[in-house]
Amino acid sequence: MSDILIIGGGIIGMLTARELRMGGADVTLLDRRETGREATWAGGGIISPLYPWGYADPITRLAGWGQLHYQGLALALEENTSIAPEWTPNGLLILDNDEQQAALAWARQWGQPLEILDGRQIAELEPALADPPDQAIWMPAVAQIRNPRLARALRQDIEKRGVRVREGVNVDSLVVQEGQVQGVRSAETFIGAEKVIVCTGAWTSRVLEGCSLTTEVRPVQGQMILFKAKPELLKRISLFQDHYSIPRRDGRILFGSTLEEVGFDKRTSTEAQRQLTQVALERFPALAAYPIEHQWAGLRPASPSGIPYIGPHPEIAGLFVNAGHFRNGLVMAPASCRLAADLILGRPPLVDPSPYALNAPRG
Q1: Going by C-beta distance under 8 Å and a sequence separation of 6 or more, which residues neighbour residue 223?
Q2: What DSSP letter does each residue of 273-308 carry, written as one string?
Q3: What is the separation of C-alpha 255 from the centre of its chain, rounded to a whole number of angstroms?
Q4: pLDDT digits (tens, 9 = 90+) for 66-97
Q5: CA-based angle 314:316:318, to the nearest 5?
Q6: Is the pTM of this model over 0.85?
Q7: Residues 228-248: tens digit of each pLDDT
């Protein structure tokens, strides 16, 4: 029997396992498929919320801590695994002029570097941009990470640290007796543990079904496309009207994304590809010379106000949750998982945990 059993092998599950193992716990991680193959793999990798001034303070606190520590995490993972997650500080260029006043007020409140650029400065930062606006928001400290590489590095790192990883294990139910979690049941097999951590993203409410108090997590589909371009064609992460472009080091350019309420359906559509391609080419005409290499869809774990659930179940001893990060799982992951480990191991919490409790009010 493990001290701690984690259900879900995305970045939240793996990074929680890493934090717990580094804290001395005996940890087993279960995933119904392969680790890192759901929202972790499907996301874009921007280490910032989109339009961060539009989010509640509990999200900003977790995101800000993650932004400060991501470079160190990437370097530590590369040193331990020889896999580079490609932390890259491209900066974020936001082209929506109606966001400027809110952005400036937020930057003053949180001490974030942010400035308003004129058309000439915009063209210098991103020469491939068609018809630069008169002004734009520039966030020079925003970085990206190549999330599939991050997932592979995390998987190797936690196994080297002694976390047992079991893939292809579909948890049918939690096993609870007299208000205490005992473990999980999968395909008529019981897997025991003193503590169970639910890190199952969009599937969290299903896993917690029957636990009296559950979460309001639902799947929201996002589709993206990938251009196989050349390095330095685009230089910056850019955002306009909720569509973003992310240039990777090897020249590939991610463009996304859609927001679709289609349940657990991950099928892609030709209409989504058409719309994303049209917007991408209008913004960056040079992309017309390069093929679309791939299109995919992922399921974001949406929660009320986007505030994740992090902490103990108030009615079942030994049961914890770390899920519901919606579009900001990547940037909030380091702080979310440190906070979860603090609460599980009885350490002083990284931040005030009350806004993330399962029974905390969410707008």
Answers
A1: 256, 257, 258, 260, 268, 269, 272, 273, 276, 295, 296, 297
A2: HHHHHHHHHHH-GGGGGS-EEEEEEEEEEE-GGG--
A3: 17
A4: 999 999 999 999 999 999 999 999 999 999 98
A5: 100
A6: yes
A7: 999 999 999 999 999 999 999
What SS3 state is found at 65?
helix
- List Cβ neighbours of 285 (8 Å cut-off, separation of 6 or more): 130
- Helix 329-345 crosses helix 57-81 at what angle (to 10 degrees)? 90
CA atoms of 146 and 44, how far apart (whole Å): 8
Measured CA to CA, the distance from residue 100 to residue 297 in angstroms comes to 31
Structure-token pair, residue 357: 């409790």
| Angle between helices 147-160 and 57-81 in degrees, nearest 10 | 70
For residue 2, which of 205, 187, 165, 231 has the smallest C-alpha distance? Answer: 165
Q: Whose CA is closest to 185, among 174, 200, 196, 194? A: 174
Interatomic CA distance for residues 139 and 345, integer angstroms: 36
**Of the candidates 160, 168, 158, 173, which has an alpha carbon nearest to the alpha carbon of residue 37?**
168
Domains, the chain: 2-79+147-217+305-356 (3.50.50.60), 92-140 (no CATH), 218-302 (3.30.9.10)
In sequence order, what are the beta bridge partners of 46?
A: 144
Distance between CA atoms of residues 221 and 213, nearest Å? 25
Verify cis geometry, omega within 30 degrees of 0, for the bond prior to 82: no
- CA distance linking residue 322 with residue 62, whole number of Å: 13
